[in-house]
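Example record used in the benchmark description.
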Amino acid sequence: MGKKTTLFTLALIFICMIGAVSNSYANEITNDTALRRLIKNVIMDYHEVTPEILLPENDANKTDNIMNTTISKGKYEDCSKTMLWFDSTATNKMLPGIVSGGDFDARLYVRGGRSNELLTIVDGQEIKSPYLWDGKVSLINPLLIEDVYFYSGAIPAKYPVSLSGVLDIVQKKGDLKKVNVEIDQNLTEFQFLIDGPIQKMKHSFLYSVRKTFYDYMFRIPNTILPHLDSFSQKYLFSLTSDHRLFVDMSYYSDMMVVDNLNINQGIKGKHSSGSIRKMFLGNLESNWGEKLKSNLSMGYEDSFATWKVEKEIPTPNSSTGVAYDSKPAYIKLDVEMSQFEGHKVMTGIGFRQENLNYEEENINMLTNLDYPGSVRKTNSENYTSSYQTYALYLQDEISMNPFTIVAGLRYCWIPNNHLSHSTSLQPRLTVSLKDITRNATLFASIGKYETFNNPVNNGQLVDVLPEQVIQYSVGIEEKVNINWQWKTEVFVKRYSSLVDAKRDSSTGEIVSYDNSKIGRVYGLEFLLRKENASDWNFWLSYTYSNAKYLESSSNWYSADHDQAHTFNLFSTYKLSEDWSFVANWTVSSGKPYTDIVGANYDTSKNVYIPIKAAKNAERLPGYNNLTISFEYQKPIWPFDQFTGSTYIGATNLLNQSNIYGYSWSDDYTTKTEIRMLPFVPIFGIRINF
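Model output (structure tokens):
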């Protein structure tokens, strides 16, 4: 190891150590204010301030990295057979450290964080709010997935804006040898996929279509059932033996309208929502010899979303609605160098341009029912905002057998003159010790992760500090043999400078923002899996977690999706040459909620004012869901002359009454359970040409 290289490495490690130790969809809709808050939460997920996105498919992901969990396409394909719709969420929920919103909720919560703290990257493109149907279904098509790399700790420096984790998804590319056609259909969706060579062994294409069909079969007056459409086309061009160009163009749309909807408190009205998202990305991968690689990535997204609730009963009529338009663009360059013996250096620079248009209209809406001075208002909020974010990162992976040290540093900034807190320095360090005789690795990591989560007021970013978490973790992983491996990890997270809204003590209207909110999380994760076997494969994960937050106006309280115990079991078993069996079982303790212990009637507002217990002091009952399916390795008649398969099964086989939350009567004297999916049959067919 050269003297200059050694000095550089020691300096980087020192910076990491010093820097690291320095500084939902609602369960119920109880009043007009909650309706408005719900809409803003759903829509505003799209415009959190985020730095650039990073490269998709990097060799660093494919190395024997003990800090990530890799999921293959086979597991997504198998798990899709235990769902009513094609959704990658079912597989992601099995990952250690992850808590889901529920059966019909695609949002994921990693190690006690909020759902927007999980960074989702698809082929290098960051997908903000990667959901359809207001967060109920994932935008990611599981049948297009090739590999997924999940990080819940020791996040590499190349990834931006990830307080809790990264889900890095690599999608399939077209076959370079032959044309393939695949048709998939279950009880809710139809999919068509064709791929093949443009020029054999050189260029390829892939086209896919995904569409719901039940909305055409069942007609309900004044109602548009939730439906989705998506189309994508992917091209791979081998420009030379050392340079490859990947181009992806995708389109997603969803919509639903429900009339005469029982919202809550005797309220009836209409709910409507929809979105259209168009995405483009280009990625140029280059090899400049054995020791130098680069990736140039650029992309653009055009997204439009609406969300509206019109309350008709009881009077007075009121409504609230939001329309949101986002057009981000980015460019990013990543370089990987292996010139120095025992070192693998990664560095990069990125730029992202945000363009936002936001419109909100409220008619006869209470500003906030929980405050005594709350009044009904008719107002609108319209703004256009545009800003840029930049980032630089440097990471060195040092191999000193049996030790491996990964030291990284990330620097982000917003070049905005009126912001006094527009920079972020994020060091991180991981050390691992490998026992070659047992093929086991002991590892420890520390890292500071930050994100710009500036609210927008009148089109301008509010001047607040970046949100921050410092995470510590220690664990061990052992690969017992080619099939069996296990991993366990203990973690601690310290949140600081979280953005908190300050409200008028009388009306409840937001008057300012600060960084007074803090949080603390600790837990344990365990993963045992058997893979790559011809007959039986197995995946078992267990997570213990305790997540609490503190705001200036409250005592410590449990996070909304704090779930002490989560157990997942997924298994596939080959019964014979023609039959196989898939089972997916999840058991967990209940999530917290805020109970309502009474109500006072306000004659001036013609509403009941709820009397709430301590925030998140109560717990929902536990969750238990066993889903199974049997697959026959041939399509049913009249498609039995083709290759493919047919599967049949049921979700919630034991018909457990899993509770999503509660709603209350108009006077809060009656509490009603909001239940998740009951026993529902599953059926699907796959045809290959």
